[in-house]
């Protein structure tokens, strides 16, 4: 059976970062592993180039959209080429073949009755000219981008009958417990589907940067919704809707995605495929999120790790090794330079690099660099059997994408080798005249290294080719069969000297991430204290709980000139009653549905016989009083500080 492995197609609105690199590394490693085993394999990556987001990014950069997309798409492709990523196809959603395939899919779904025309009713921000789903609105009404009030607007749209697939999807998840890996992730998908699926708007009329409608629809004011267009790349890349020449690779064996886009891949995508009467991918492999030094990476923080920078300084294969070894698949991972350097020095330099150097050194001294396996079985049958045990255990880890377990297990080979060297001490055996035994130990280690380099090849292709070259063989499916499946020993060969593969890293080579402004140390504060006794410690400030509140109701307090009675939502179970002396400056009506800042941990007090459970922040001068409000809408209860 053939193997088809995909990465998401990346948006062309910015350069690649380490998260993109991780998905691409893991997919590349699995593709290489399958090829090594002799499987017919197709590995796809590419770029997602349509939609309003890209159009806007191009505008911000002052470039025509296509030109902008061309540039960023090329930067992804060049990076992957630089990194030796072994993709079979790099798809762009602006490719003509892709557009034809998307139109064909649309026609097929329409003919089946799964697409119908109606009106999209949604929250529209006129200023941003964008629809927002209810879930993204701030307090159910405000635009998450500019904070302005959104309007409910109707736009003509074609809809995909997603609701029809709710039961079919749920049944599919039940019957295929490994559809989403790791298995633990399926619950969030099931809950979402079980909560009810609404039909999906799959076209837009508010912008033009997208795949046009098929001619047969005779309706050019619509363009395709970017996720319909994007998801279909996985089949258009195989020729769907055109020459279909590679469609026999479908269904995909594993589609790698970050957990951020699991919903699209585990709900919309299978529903589209069901509608097209195509089989579903075997696995959606959803991996976790990478942070840097424990912090979310973002352009504004300036802490994004550029994979090119790391690779230039430390070597791309070291980076691949680190990322695939560091995190259990599915869990979040953290990139810290210290952890990275520690792994290079201890696991790559000490465990692997030194072993190769040691046998080059020993065989040079003892046998003029000639290594012969003829006596290995006699002196090292125990080690050979341990070695084979490790090798036999590896496949299941890679098939489950557990690269960290795969590598952890693989590293046991080096322990076996090092232990054999310590126990058999070839230098002592040579002194005692037991040359055969000494040379058998050196040959055992060479055999272990040969196997380790074959199995490590999918993760570190070039480095392992260098090791194999030193050991006079080539890593390919034939050597995989010979050494891993049939367990043959290396025939006699002359080992080559190689420069150290993993020079030790003594100090960090990359600039550390900019730190978030640290709090002033206490000593410094004390110094200032001497000058001004009014200053407080930061902790004293945080004793006050300040929160954003939304005024739900407001009314005048009868017989009071100053007081208004407000019901304020602080994100708690029920609103708080706040009695505020602001009636001279604000009417009750104008306060409703606005946001204010509230001291939330004041002891409740009675004012005119009514409980007040908080205090508003306001500024007052000779011109009057004004309330302190958040600059943009925030969720009720958001802490201020
Ligand atoms: O979502 N940690 O593209 P995108 C781990 N075009 N992985 C990360 C990451 C991080 N910090 N940041 C990004 C899109 N990724 C759509 C996909 S597919 C039909 C359309 C990786 O450029 C991860 O794989 O935003 C995530 O799913 C993907 O990049 C999102 O890339």
Give the helix/strand layout.
Elements: E1 3-11, H1 18-36, E2 41-48, H2 52-60, H3 65-82, E3 89-92, H4 96-111, E4 115-125, E5 130-132, E6 151-160, H5 166-175, E7 180-181, H6 186-194, E8 200-201, E9 203-204, E10 223-224, H7 226-231, H8 233-236, E11 254-258, H9 262-275, E12 283-287, E13 290-292, H10 307-314, H11 316-326, E14 333-335, H12 337-367, E15 370-371, H13 376-399, H14 403-410, H15 412-424, H16 426-431, H17 435-456, H18 461-470, H19 477-485, E16 493-494, H20 522-531, H21 538-542, E17 546-556, E18 564-569, E19 576-580, H22 588-591, E20 595-599, E21 605-607, E22 610-612, E23 615-616, E24 618-621, E25 624-627, E26 639-640
Parallel strand pairs: 1-2, 1-11, 2-3, 7-12, 11-12, 13-14
Antiparallel strand pairs: 4-5, 4-6, 6-8, 9-10, 15-16, 17-18, 17-20, 17-26, 18-19, 20-23, 21-22, 24-25
Helix pairs in contact: 2-3, 5-6, 10-11, 12-17, 13-14, 13-15, 13-17, 15-17, 17-18, 17-19
The chain binds ligand ME8.
Radius of gyration: 32 Å
Shape: globular
Q: Classify the secondary structure makeup into a structural class.
A: alpha/beta
Sheet with the most strands: spatial strand order: 3-2-1-11-12-7
**Low-pLDDT runs:** 518-533
CATH homologous superfamily of the domain at 334-494 - what is it? Answer: Isoleucyl-tRNA Synthetase, Domain 1
User: Number of DSSP strands?
Assistant: 26
Count of DSSP H/I helices: 22
Q: Give the CATH class of the domain at 334-494.
A: Mainly Alpha
CATH-defined fold name of the domain at 334-494: Isoleucyl-tRNA Synthetase, Domain 1
- The CATH architecture of the domain at 334-494: Orthogonal Bundle
Helical amount among residues, as a percent range? 40-55%
Distance between the termini: 58 Å
The average pLDDT value, as a whole number, equals 91
Largest sheet: 6 strands, parallel
Bound molecules: ligand ME8
Fraction in beta strands: 15-25%
